[in-house]
Every structure is written in C-alpha cells, then in structure tokens.
Amino acid sequence: MAKQGVVPDALTQPFWDAANEGRLVIQHCHACNRLQYPPSPTCQQCGSKDHLAWQEMSGRGTIYNYGVVYDCPVRLLQQDQPFNVAVIMLDEDPGIQMYSHLPGTPVDMVPVGARVEVIFEATANGQKVPEWRVVG
Amino acid sequence: MTPQHPPASMYRTTEGLGLWEHRGKVAAVGVGHSPTARRWDGTPETCVGAWSILALRRAIADAGVSPDQIDGLVLDPVTTTGAYWVEGAPVPMDVVNAFHPTSDPLDGIAKLSAEWILQNMPELTNIQFVMYGPRCMSHAIVVAAQAVGAGHTHTCLVLKSWHNFEGRYYQGGANAQDTIDGTSAISRLWGTPASYGTALQFAEYCRKYGKTHDMMAPFITNSRHNGLLFPEGYWAQHRPEHLTTEDYLAARWIAKPANLFDNDIPIMVSAAYLFTTPERAKDMQQKPVYILNHASSRAAPRSLTPTLEEVEAETAKTGRKLYEGAGITAAALSFENMYDGFTLFHQFHLEGLGYRGIKRGEALDFYQTDISIAGPNPVSSSGGNIGSGRSRFWMHTDCIQQLQGRAGARQVTGVTPEIAVSGGPMPLGGNFTVWSATPD
C-alpha cells in the first residue's frame, strides 16, 4: 500500500531514522522506567523531559485488535480500500500499541492474538515505516 | 472584552469532591436553535455567525429576559465539523461586510470569536463575563454552570455553533497531501476514519461479552425515531425518513464494525441556552431546570487509542463522580441522554452509569427491550446525533425540554421526568451534567 511519505520532525526524527536502519525504537523514561508511544516532548507520567531516551525493541508482538477501513480519509490509501488496520501490542509492554496494515493478511481475516514481527516498508517518499506480519 | 479560558479549577475531574457546592443553584431557562443545513450555501443569512445570533436571540426571547439583563457569555470559538476553509480560497467579502467583522475575515464564517458576537449583537450592553468552553456544548455548559454558581455571571448565554462546507468529511488538508509530518504519521499514516477507535472498542466489547453488531439495531432505529420528533433537528427538517433494522444492517461499512449509521452526519447548526440563578429564574418565562452536578473526564489513553479496559474504567468513574456530586444514585434517573456520536460507545456510557441497573456487557441486551420514550426505560430520548445530526447538543436541549415538560411529541410518557443526565463527547475526555426538575 502506498502510504503518504513521512517527513520526520524534531520530535520523531530518531524513530524514523531507526526505521530506515531496520530498527524499532520507542521512547523510554528512565525516571519512570516506562515506555511511551506516541512520542512526546515530555514523559506523560512524570512530566520529565530530561529522562527520555529511545530504546530499541525486539520487534515482536501480538495482534490485540483490528478494524477494516472501507472509507479512508487519506487520499493515497483510498485505492486500496477495504484494508485491515490492526493494533499490535509490543512484547516489551502490552500497553504500547502500534498500528499495522498487516501486509499479507487477507481483509477481515485478522487472527486476533496471533504473533507478529516487525518489518519495514518504504512510504511514498522512501522513508521507511514499521509494519507487521503474522508469524508462525 | 477579552475572553478568558477556563482554569482547571472549574472542572470536577476527580472522585471524593462531595456534593457540588452549587448544587441546585444554577438553572437553565431559555433555549434557542438555528435552522439546520447539511452545508453552508454561501449566503450571509446562513453563515455560522448569523445562525449563532439567531440561536442566541431565540434563547433570550424564550427565557423572556431583556438583553440588557444578560451579563455573561460562554461559547466555543471553534466551529468546524471537520471542514476547513481551503487555504488561499477567496474570502466572500459580501458575507464579511454584511456584519461588523473582526480583524479575521473568516470570523463568523469558519470560526466564531466572542468579539464577533458582541460586535454583531449590540443589544448585549451589559456583558461582564466572557469565557470559552472549547469543543462542544457539553464543555460550555460545565463552564457556564460553574461561572453562574460562583457568581461570576448571573444571567449567562451558552452557545455552541457548527459550520460545514463543501467536500467530504476530513478528506481535505493533510489527508489529501502526498506527505505527512513525522508526528502526525505516528497515528494517521494508516488512514483510519474518525470512528475507527470506537469501532475497535466495540469489537473488543463484542468478543469479551459475546455480542454482535446487529444487536445495535434497536438503538439506531429508536434514535432516528426520536430524532424525527425533534423539530429542531436535521433529519426532521430535511429528510424525515424512518430508519429500519434492515436499513441499518445493509448500510455500508466505514470502519468495520462501524457502519454508515453508526457515524453521525456533519451539519451546520447553532444552539444557545440561557443559564441563571434560581432567584432570577422566578421572573422568567420558562420553568427552570436545575443543575445538580457536573463532572468531567480528563483521562488519556496509554497509547494510540483507548482500550476497552480504559473505557470501562473511565465511564464507571464518570458515573460515580456524577452521582456523588449530585447526591443521587442511578435509581434517580428518569431518562438518559449520554452522547452517541458514535453510536458504538453509547453502551459504555450506559453501563458506566449503571442506568436501570445495567452491568458490564448487558447494554446490548437492554437495547432489545422497550427503550422508547413511551416505555419505562427511555434510552437517548433526544435521539442524539444519530437522530438529528452532528451537533453534540441535542442531548442537552432534550434534557432541558423534557424536564420543562415541553418536549412536544418527544416528551417521555413512560416515566415522570424528574432527573436526567447528558454529556460527552468521548468516554475518555468529556463533560457531563445532571439536570433536575427541582433544585433538591
């Protein structure tokens, strides 16, 4: 699927740079020992901005939930309707969710609870983005 | 007068606050609505500013006060339904110059400042208090109730207005571009429609409790039925079409399991209420409806979208806060008007309130019973956004009108209207009000 090209900004640059290197990184607050995603300038728990760092993840997780998009607001994706959008829970912390189109999984045939692993796909401008595929 | 933004101290966001200090000391009296339209037709008479003035004047007339008695105004300056003025598109100066404009030519067309209202309603000569209540009427009500209770204003107009332009919902702006900024991409790159998050919660709800999407049908048809009895609403005014179970089940998906009729239709409309003190209400034209409490949810999801677990915890908390501050239990509710845009979260509100003793996982079964305005367990007597279009205020208007005994053909008949609850929008992040026909 031809996702919009991503233009990294100051907050998210490390996340997107890591994706281009084939690594999944998530913000981590050392003070709280807590992951957070989406990224934020401050820790959403303690408010600190000095204890945040990017931590590499294993790239493994589980499908928590999904919906099927039939009426997409994003122009570039409309030609691919309908498509899955699954919610992935990371092994490191099931409270952290990531979205996925689950490439290779038929529409509305999403195995909730199945194991997944991260892959990296190029978007319209070449920037890579974490995606997920079912394993096992 | 420079509008203030409400301080955090105006909201009741936590449990353990006890009875609301202004319980029964704030009353809604006047109600005014503009007409509705699917989209703006480009004329000065129907722009969001004009319809706001119309709604305000109708609320003033309905209450039977003279404009110089009014000393407060609470409104939301953001009026978009998801439609934005196209960048670089020419501004219709005939519309701008039909009014007393502010420095922003789109004021009154694609937004609404307090300054614009006051410049164009010269009869409001005594305004001493102006505050913004952002996002929706539920928020403005809470701010106005607290302001009247605290004595910042004694006769206060509460306004919420919506504009809608040509084009499909949320399909302009960044969504139409070839690129997206890195922060927005984290959540928006996958192209999810607005109802996607709620659809996820509903899917999880169905899996957890063994329910199915078709069990929503009685709620949907009941909502449209009630909406068609709401003469101020969009469907009643423009498309008086009943909705059947078959219509609902055959509707196209938007974000499965949310279909077309699980989504509310964006419209243009304005509504205004007049709030005052019980003492002043005695001299007004309509029966006062008293506010027993208000409560707000400021919870945020841990990650991209709220989980069912987070939704259930927060709606239960909202229910407890509402009852605690109002000094009532669920048994006191005559009817309910919790938010419904999107339909698939209405049951979370009901179960959080414990309306009619409903427990977790039971609301869809409850929908299969008599939930009509003629029965003993009215659900969404207003018909909500599903019944009358996306305004986020039909539920409040209905509570006021029902408790005043002037809801017309929509008047509940299976219960005596004494106490009701309304509010929203989202289970995580909303503002809620308990209304009563009596102050205690």
Structural commentary:
The complex is a heterodimer of chains A (136) and B (440). Chain A contains one helix and nine strands. The two termini of chain A are 23 Å apart. Chain B is an alpha/beta fold. Chain B has two domains: 177 residues, Peroxisomal Thiolase, Chain A, domain 1 (3-Layer(aba) Sandwich), CATH 3.40.47; 221 residues, Peroxisomal Thiolase, Chain A, domain 1 (3-Layer(aba) Sandwich). In chain B, the strands form two sheets. In chain B, strands 3-2-4-8-1-9-12-11-10 form a nine-stranded mixed sheet, with helices on both faces. A two-stranded antiparallel ribbon of chain B has the order 6-7. In chain B, a hairpin with a 1-residue loop joins strand 6 and strand 7. In chain B, helix 11 packs across helix 12. Chain B is globular. Classes of the chains: A mainly beta (136), B alpha/beta (440). The interface between A and B is large, with 48 and 42 residues. Strand 5 of chain A pairs antiparallel with strand 6 of chain B.
Structural class designation of chain A:
mainly beta
Provide the domain count of chain A: 2
- Average pLDDT of chain B: 97
Please write the string of helix (H) and strand (E) elements of chain A. EHEEEEEEEE
* Biggest β-sheet strands, sense, barrel of chain B: 9 strands, mixed
* Form type of chain A: globular
Distance between the termini of chain B: 36 Å
Strand content of chain A: 35-45%
Strand order of the largest sheet of chain A: 7-6-5-8-9
Radius of gyration of CA atoms of chain A, rounded to a whole number: 15 Å
Task: Enumerate the strands of the largest sheet of chain B in spatial order, edge to edge or round the barrel.
Answer: 3-2-4-8-1-9-12-11-10
> What does the largest sheet of chain A look like?
5 strands, antiparallel
Class of secondary structure makeup of chain B: alpha/beta
